[in-house]
Amino acid sequence: MSARRPFREVKLQWLQQLSCDKDLSDNARSIALYIVTTHMNGHTEKAWPSYQTIADATGKSVKTIQRAIRELEDKEWFDVRRGNGIGHNTEYRPSALSILRASEAREKTDRIVTLRPGEGGQIRPRRQSDMSGKGGQICPPNPEKEKIYKPNAREERSASGNLQSAVPAIFVADTKMEQLHQWQKWLGSQGLGTLDALCVRATANGKSGYRLPGHWPPAETDPNSGRWFSFFSHRSAGILDCREGTIDAQSRESELRPIRSRVIGAL
Predict the structure, then answer these.
(1) Hey, CA dihedral for 214, 217, 219, 222, is it positive or negative?
(2) Which of 1, 62, 163, 247 yields a CA-CA distance of 20 to 30 A from 73?
(3) Most confidently modeled range among 36-40, 114-118, 214-218
(4) 27: helix, coil or strand?
């Protein structure tokens, strides 16, 4: 006889045997399924639903629940310890005999059945195709299933490594003075400038603050410090490019302004 396993390991086999017990009434079977699947604690193997709770959930009367519980107890599906009033509900626990039966069923399903007749297992059916013995049949190509995948420009940049991995942004309000002070100090030590220069200013829920990778700057041993440094470096480079583009546009505008004036005067 196999050893008794914990109920949580043989719960499926227990439920299968309960469902196939022809001697149980439908009321007893449905109530047992409800208790085990809804209220049973997998570690203590106990449940404490009241008669009224079971009646409300299953749509049966309290008298029907009591008769079904007595039936489950008589046929050794549950060990029942009845309570003595409010706050001391009846305790239900799968009986040791029912768990032992489920453990034996679990042991049978865990056995490995070999397909080699030389080792006492089942006889494997003979293959009908010569290609099957060589790793499977050759299937013709299916153009409908083999859709051509073309990555977009963003995916191509990500694959080439030009796009840095995304860094999650956390909102830090202006009221978090100590956190912002530590961020300013960390940015200065890395030569990245200030928070305002990096244009990470933001507003959330009517509060002003900054969008930062974390509530606090990374420590020297933090593995994310490299990612965060790259994040701010990219922002700094992008802001510099935007400023240069703005200056070039302003200079071109100043050069074109006299030309436009002369053209308008000639008209």
Answers:
(1) positive
(2) 1
(3) 36-40
(4) helix
The CATH 1.10.10.10 portion of the chain extends over 7-107
59-86 pLDDT, tens digit per residue, is: 999 999 999 999 999 999 999 988 776 6
Asked if residues 241 and 247 have their Cβ atoms less than 8 Å apart, the reply is no
The one-letter amino acid at 51:
Y
Q: End-to-end alpha-carbon separation of the chain, Å? A: 110
Hey, is 238 helix, strand or coil? helix
Most confident of 92-96, 113-117, 143-147: 92-96
* Under 8 Å between Cβ of 8 and 43: yes
Instruction: Read off the tokens for 123.
Output: 């006889």
Contacts of 46 (CB under 8 A, 6+ apart): 40, 91, 92, 93
What is the model's pTM?
A: 0.41
Report residue 114: phi and psi, to 5°: -75, 150
Helix axes of 11-19 and 96-110: crossing angle, nearest 10 degrees = 110
**Statement: 7-107 belongs to CATH 3.40.50.300:** no
Distance between CA atoms of 116 and 118, rounded to whole angstroms? 5
